[in-house]
Write a structure and sequence with these properties.
By secondary structure, the protein is an alpha/beta fold. Helices cover about 30% and strands about 25% of the residues.
Length: about 425
């Protein structure tokens, strides 16, 4: 008698949300060939199956190799009352502290992007008061002690009438690295604004919207051809030496074929420290968005980086151990015209286990500690560069200049926001 077997590997169980009614639902993780699916069941709407990775080996490495004990915040803000995901804020059921905190200072924006998870725009004129913002910053400090990264966002934060006093308030607190999330319009068009921004340059970075170098994707994602604005803003930031990350919102069939073009362009910009890829999700304003056609996973983006660039391979893009399901990263060093990926040289244990930091080609205990510090999420970019300078002399086949700074660092980051379609409550916690 031949036994029937299911045409997939049953890998794990979790809980999710019904895409239709948002009911917390039982879910399974299934692996079929090289694809990984989240299969959830709702008594009202039946079974729903969602592709969450197109590379089963990579997905399994996230769950089995690149995972570390979570770090708790200094305090929790809200009680457990209804259960995850309804008790956020942070509640004691949340397993992780805030590696990066977004502080939204305004709902107002000078664009009405067809894809905007904040649903901001010119029609929303409300700015948070400076007093409320300072209370928010104080809450972040109480939660984290010394926050790793705080990002001022919105809306368009540069439109806040007290933008620079708010920056001063943020800098007066023990925040290791401060960012502003901006579309760049004011940097490009407001005389003197970029110069004033440059005064904050130490421990400060501009998170610049940069979805494409082509007109049509920008029209679809932002409602306008913003190429000139983005290039003008970047020219000012280059001139002033303000550290910048280019942020690419990626929508399948719209600009996912241009990832390599943006990365290669970024590598040529003196002020750019990296590129962040953020796949679209079903949240906020999603004009023309169809999850079945436009969703793109972390593993797909990792593959496209390797296919579209001459610098990075798949092996260079590794899961971030504090949240491997939704974050991936690659680090490299810009040495003049040459870019040298670094992540490929690291044993995963370097990223995961501070007590057993090893790399395959070197076993010096002090070096192992420095390698771990380099990739630890609680280090500022300046201290990362210091670690780099001491590390690179020991890497094989790499000739390095005697002095390195943060300007030599280049990082790729994939940040996937979960929505009702892809929500995995285990990963959320």
């Amino acid at each position: 008698m031949t036994r029937k077997v299911r045409p997939y590997l049953f890998y794990d169980t979790t809980t999710a949300l019904c895409t239709e009614c948002l009911r917390v639902s039982e879910a399974k993780i299934l692996i079929k060939d090289s694809d990984v699916y989240l299969e959830k069941w709702c008594p009202a709407h039946g079974t729903q199956r969602v592709l969450i990775a197109d590379d089963a080996d990579y997905y399994r490495s996230c769950r089995e190799v690149f995972i570390k004990p979570p770090e708790m915040p200094e305090r929790f803000n809200t009680p457990m009352r209804y259960g995850c995901p309804f008790d956020c804020g942070l509640c004691p059921d949340h397993m992780q502290h805030s590696c990066l905190t977004l502080v939204e200072i305004t709902d107002n924006c000078n664009l009405r992007c067809p894809v905007c998870f904040a649903d901001s725009g010119p029609h929303r004129a409300r700015h948070k008061s400076r007093e409320d913002i300072e209370r928010m910053l104080d809450a972040v400090v109480r939660n984290e002690g010394t926050p790793d990264v705080v990002q001022l966002s919105g809306g368009e934060p540069t439109l806040h009438p007290e933008f620079f006093p708010i920056l001063d308030s943020a800098r007066a607190r023990p925040i290791r690295h401060l960012m502003i999330n901006t579309n760049g319009i004011r940097i490009a068009k407001d005389p003197g604004f970029a110069e004033r921004l440059a005064r904050y340059s130490k421990g400060f970075e501009v998170y610049l919207q940069f979805d494409s170098l082509q007109a049509e994707p920008l029209r679809q994602l932002r409602g306008a051809d913003l190429r000139d604005v983005h290039l003008e803003a970047l020219a000012r930031l280059n001139e002033l030496g303000v550290s910048t990350t280019l942020v690419m919102t990626v929508k399948k069939g719209v600009n996912d074929s241009q990832i390599g073009e943006v990365i290669e362009f970024a590598l040529k910009q003196p002020c750019v420290r990296g590129v962040t890829l953020q796949p679209v999700q079903q949240a906020g304003r999603t004009d023309g968005y169809d999850a079945a056609r436009h969703r793109i996973t972390v593993s797909e983006l990792r593959r496209k980086i390797a296919e579209q660039t001459a610098v990075f391979s798949r092996e260079d893009v590794v899961p971030v151990p504090c949240n491997p399901d939704t974050l991936a990263m690659a680090y490299a060093l810009k040495l003049g015209p040459k870019t040298v990926p670094l992540t490929r040289y690291l044993d995963p244990r370097v990223l995961v286990d501070a007590a057993r930091n090893t790399i395959t080609f070197e076993h010096d205990p002090e070096l192992r500690t420095r390698v771990f510090e380099l990739f630890s999420t609680n280090k500022s970019p300046e201290s990362q560069a210091s670690c780099l300078a001491e590390l690179l002399c020991c890497l094989p086949r790499i000739e390095t200049p005697p002095s390195l700074s943060y300007s030599n660092v280049f990082r790729l980051l994939i940040v996937q926001f979960m929505d009702a379609v892809s929500m995995d409550i285990r990963a959320l916690k």
